[in-house]
Amino acid sequence: MTVVEENQAGDRGPVADAPGATQRAHSHGGPGVPDASRAARRTSFDVADFPLPSGREEDWRFSPTERLGALFAAGADSGEAVLEVSAPEGVEHRSGATAELGAGTAFLPGDRVAAAAWGATRTAHLVRIRPEAELDEPVLLTLRADGGTSSGHLVVEAGAHSRATVVLDHVGTGQHRGGVEVRVGDGAQLTFVTLQEWQAGSVHVGQHDVVVGRDATVKHFAVSLGGDVVRLSTNVRYAAAGGDAQLLGLYFSDAGQHLEHRLFVDHEPVSCKSYVEYKGALQGETARAVWIGDVLIRAAAEGTETYELNRNLVLTDGARADSVPNLEIETGEIVGAGHASATGRFDDEQLFYLQARGIAEAEARRLVVRGFFADVIQRIGVPALQERLLATIETELQTTMPAAAGTTTRDAATAEEN
């Protein structure tokens, strides 16, 4: 991939050894670095504490607020989203009011939509993996919306020293606002995969809060392929020392789609790790992708090791990707911290190499994109899901109408369904 924009700060080595490193608090990042510390950002369960966004606020300036109107409103929903659960032995599922399930202990709404979703949720769900359980099969959750505006809240609890994979798939159509809180017990290993596979015309704004226990490991995968607008905020905190969080994601934005991923990793306990890697591709007029990666290393978080990476592959003219990595560091006593982002087009040398071996240009382009995404997909660890995602990406790459029309195979498939 030919890099046309690069924002690099730090590396995996000790920050204290870097040129100009100091022991005082500092931050760095690309254009659009917020003036206020992430530690000072507002959180509240009361929607009244968040003014209606104008689109000029730092948290909303990349988002198409005019397309999110119904999700900002407090009060009852006009539709409903149903959660279907398929789980192996060792998993408990209960539903009820948020208070009945003890929801909110690991979740703090960070914007108006998240607070409105919390207030409007009629039925919340708890999926609990018992302590020391080792699940050989994934827990499959399907959230299905059928028009209208819907709200929901999901709690996923991995008991101490358990090992499990949970897959949450969003399907159907409508405008959905949802909260997810993931509690990872001490010594647990949890892989959590969220898929945004909405039909055309759908809008989804979600917030995921993850709390990592002592010596626990969590992998959070976010895959956004469907819907007209998707804005997903993922926040990670550590309950004790030794936590390890990996935030991985991929997205493919077509003409008219807006796919936005915002991440915040809050390091406060000592000796914790975080690694962030998101990859996206864009094709078609007005295709848009936004990635915001914030990492805060507090003064007490000695021994922290963190790195965040975002790569975007622009396949056609008219597509736009915004990538803003930010590091805020309050101590120099860390193992390492860094970030990088790049947005570019196909590497002509890669294409020439493949074509020189008899591969047609169109097929060569598909191979490059498949390879671009394959590394992230293979880390999910669920073979059937990995094959499905690769097939979906392959479909995205095969246009059935002239490029000037801005129509992709997903648009054609949706038209056939209707």
TrEMBL record:
Region entry Disordered, spans: 1-39
Superkingdom of this protein's organism: Bacteria
Any Pfam family matching the protein: SUFBD_core
Domain (SUF system FeS cluster assembly SufBD core): residue spans on this chain: 145-372
Signal peptide annotation: none
Family, similarity comment: Belongs to the iron-sulfur cluster assembly SufBD family.
Name listed for the protein in its UniProt record: Fe-S cluster assembly protein SufD
Native source organism of the sequence: Kineococcus glutinatus
